[in-house]
Write a structure and sequence with these properties.
Layout lengths: L1 E8 L4 E8 L4 E5 L5 H10 L3 E6 L5 H4 L2 H8 L3 E2 L6 H5 L1 H8 L18 E4 L2 E7 L8 E5 L4 E5 L2 E2 L2 E2 L9 H12 L7 E4 L5 E2 H7 L9
Parallel strand pairs: 3-4, 4-5, 9-12
Antiparallel strand pairs: 1-2, 2-3, 6-7, 7-8, 8-9, 10-11, 12-13
Cofactor: Zn(2+)
Protein name: MBL fold metallo-hydrolase
GO molecular function: hydrolase activity; metal ion binding
């Protein structure tokens, strides 16, 4: 079964998730925005074998620690979608703009697109391209675990910002309705910030997209 631990990191309290296969103890880290010693300590404490970095998108609070972590641990960077190349190219500028430590550059070892899958141990997660917050945003969905790691697409009671370069409000609404609602009302999602919620709860009550069917 897929297991996970979510640790808020950086001054933006970004939800970095360590996900692992319980059978093999192999793990991936989703969106290592920073505080790498803390993340690695959590990996060691659980006896996990860190195998990969998965990115939902390339904003600094989600991707700021990626280059250093990949280099120091010899990890492949998987994701996001190629639409976020310009955000990766601008990581150093993002660091300065938001007061983050200087971010190392990186090149993803594998870009992701809608319909792809990622695997850790015996666990396979589906990839959904959900543009709007950024052009290359993706989410990771485990149907057996009924969990989705959605980055900054959807929050408990909110949705992602679309006022950054490349953002598109209508694209975001369409992605939520077409790519997230079909995951099922009982699916728990782990957002990029704040508490977990369920697809059903947000589909019914979220003031930005609640009440709209897929």
């Amino acid at each position: 079964m897929l297991q996970y631990l979510t640790l808020p990191v950086t001054p933006f309290q970004q939800n970095c998730s360590i996900v692992w296969c319980d059978a093999t103890r192999e793990a991936a880290v989703i969106d290592p925005g920073g505080e790498l010693p803390r993340l690695l300590a959590a990996v060691r404490e659980r006896g996990l074998d860190l195998k990969a970095i998965w990115l939902t998108h390339a904003h600094i609070d989600h991707a700021g620690g990626t280059g250093q972590l990949a280099r120091e641990q010899g990890l492949p960077v998987i994701g996001p979608h190629p639409g976020d190349q310009f955000w990766i190219d601008g990581l150093a500028q993002q660091s300065r703009m938001f007061g983050f430590p200087p971010a190392e550059g990186f090149t993803p070892d594998r870009w992701l697109d809608d319909g792809d899958t990622v695997q850790i141990g015996r666990e396979t997660l589906a990839v959904r391209h959900c543009p709007g917050h950024t052009p290359g945003h993706v989410v990771f969905h485990s149907a057996p675990a009924r969990r989705a790691f959605v980055g900054d697409v959807l929050f408990a009671g909110g949705i992602g910002r679309t006022d950054f370069p490349g953002g598109n409000h209508q694209q975001l609404l369409d992605a939520i309705r077409r790519r997230l609602w079909p995951l099922g009302d009982d699916t728990v999602f782990i957002p990029g910030h704040g508490p977990e919620s369920t697809i059903g709860r947000e589909r019914k009550h979220n003031p930005y997209v609640g009440g709209f069917d897929a």
